[in-house]
Amino acid sequence: MAMSAFDALCEKILNRQAIVGVVGLGYVGLPFAVEKAKVGFHVIGIEQNPKRAEKVNRGENYIKDVSDTELRDLVQEGFIEAVVGFERVKEADIVVICVPTPLSKNLTPDLSYVEGVTRNLAAHLRPGQLISLESTTYPGTTDEVLRPILEETSGLRCGNDFFLAHSPERVDPGNQRYTTKNTNKIVGASDDLSRQAAILFYRETILDVVPVSSAKAAELVKVFENTFRAVNIALVNELLLLCDRLDLNVWEVLDAANTKPFGIMPFYPGPGVGGHCIPLDPHYLEWKAKEYNFETHFIALAGEINRRMPEFVREKAWRVLNRVGLAPSRSRVLILGITYKKDLDDWRESPAVDILQLLQQDGARVDYYDPYIPEIHLKGQILRSVEFTAAAIAQANLVLIATDHSQVDYGFVIYHAQAILDTRGVTRRLPDADQKVTLL
Fold this sequence. Notes:
- Residues 334-429 form the UDP-glucose/GDP-mannose dehydrogenase C-terminal domain.
- 41% of the residues lie in helices and 14% in strands.
- By secondary structure, the chain is an alpha/beta fold.
- The chain folds into 2 domains: 5-213, 3-Layer(aba) Sandwich (Rossmann fold); 229-439, NAD(P)-binding Rossmann-like Domain (Rossmann fold, 3-Layer(aba) Sandwich).
- The model has no long low-confidence stretch (mean pLDDT 94).
């Protein structure tokens, strides 16, 4: 009796003879490709940025969470290669989609990357393949968007001829403790064979796989995780705004509250939220809820509060400068940190960039220093990171700490700065901070 498409796929996975395609070799895709290659799977990365594809094929790493040596060795040994087109999709037994899911200007989902990739995959789909979507999206995307495109274009049936699952990425860039391998992996599919195949595949490299009943459930898990963080960050940001009115130190209040051994979880305020997850993902859930005539009040309010924070930082910066008689147009500001998160080379959606532009609009001369970002391109202007020197710090009327990179010597900053606005609370326990530092 001929082996079924499902049995043949499972045998290839267990023998690690399955070829794995990974679409999108960014913060999610490249670490995933490396983990699969490390245990013996041959990985074909489909990366439509030709410069990235060329780097991978030369064994040159560009993602901090990937080991330079591991990538180079895996490429040299033939376990990883990169291509720019979809012609080799037919060779792959499993294809994992790791492409961006941004929002439009109106905060509605933009699935153009996912839809485009799916159409390209559908044109090359063959029986026995497993397609897994890892991109974060609203509940229903896998079944309502991907499945119709794949079935109608290929003429194949999901759950019988090919298999389809959703396993949302849980990458925390820069996290040295939790990596692709040891972060619990959610896997959901809306038919039993697809779910079994996906679970089997992910268990080959990830320590703990957590199955859920459907692709829709898996999609909701991920957007809830990021919504949970967005709402709690908004709560402490609103507390900060209240403490500002009450003339209280929000950091003192939070530090004391977090000593309670139960019933509380530490979250801290800041200049806003950034990256590709927390500012965006909750709005996917908010948008989907409206389809069911359901208003997600917490999500909308959290987004509103978090988006207000750069404006509040701007206001507080001018309050600090006004105390020494300086107007915005006569001020020079040095922003420390332009990335959205400490010790990371990613400035997507960074509130520091919003703050920089707001201060520029007010007429201030604004420089920035970031050890991870040598230059940024903003609406036709190119800004380059200044050198971290005593002179650069001293000549600024205000040093604004927007991102708390670990390698910055904040004692050195305090010693040389005229005035400091610390949006991250990183200086609050340092000597002499009371003399020059204003906490957000």
